[in-house]
Fold:
Amino acid sequence: MATDWLVGQTRASAAAQRIHRAAATLIARRGTDDFTINEIAAMVHCSPATVYRHAGGKDQIREAVLTQMSARIVGDVFAAIDGLSGADRIVTAMRIGIDRIRTEPITQRMMTTTTAPPHWVENSSVIAAVTAEMIGCAPEDVAVKWFIRSVLALCQWPVGDEDVEREILERFVGPVLTPSSSPSTGQPSNVGV
Structure:
């Protein structure tokens, strides 16, 4: 498809972005499941059929919104850990990740409306791959699951004192997850982004 001179991208891409922004607004207000295709269509002034054509159904839209949000968080984490290695890399990745998760409107809503993380967090190959790259191990390594659960635990149940939280990460998380070999290049992969 050709780039539309007025919107600077294909019309299909522009439509999908508008749909995803509307969905992100609804998800931030009400959570990951409490929105409908009809609501999104009304927000972007189109028919539900147009939403389906350009962005798919509810599951595809939710996945796209969460992937875009995750890409922002991951980008910040990778920028912060660039050039770091060992425990410093892991502790910094965790601290920045936790901070971004706590301040992102969508994850704030998810943390306040659920008692357990949604199943997609545990089963996401994208989250596993990015986490593995951050801590320097294979995506199927049990350390990836432990890292993800540790981040989510601290997000769901904050320590309340930044210095104590940093000490917990430095004393207990960093040393446990420090890989024996050096991590990858420190650059984010293109997995899921």
